[in-house]
Design a protein that fits this description.
Layout lengths: L10 H9 L5 H17 L5 H8 L3 H5 L8
Helix pairs in contact: 2-3
């Protein structure tokens, strides 16, 4: 069976694909805070180090989470 030659994707296709996966700044911040909280909860980093690594504040990491209706 003849195999199809695979090469790099065209730039315009990859740029369009990346555009589909962008999030607004508020959502990005929430993701960073939740990731930092998870890393701290797992014992891998201290709140201070996680704040530095993820670019959020210690207060955001340690604050009580509001109840979600989702």
């Amino acid at each position: 069976m003849k195999q199809r030659k695979r090469g790099p994707m065209q730039d315009e296709l990859t740029e369009a694909m990346h555009g589909e996966f962008t999030v607004d700044a508020e959502t990005e911040r929430r993701h960073k805070v939740e990731t930092a909280r998870a890393v701290v909860a797992s014992g891998h980093l201290t709140p201070a180090k996680a704040a530095e690594v993820y670019g959020v504040t210690v207060e955001e990491i340690t604050a009580l989470r509001p109840e979600s209706n989702e």
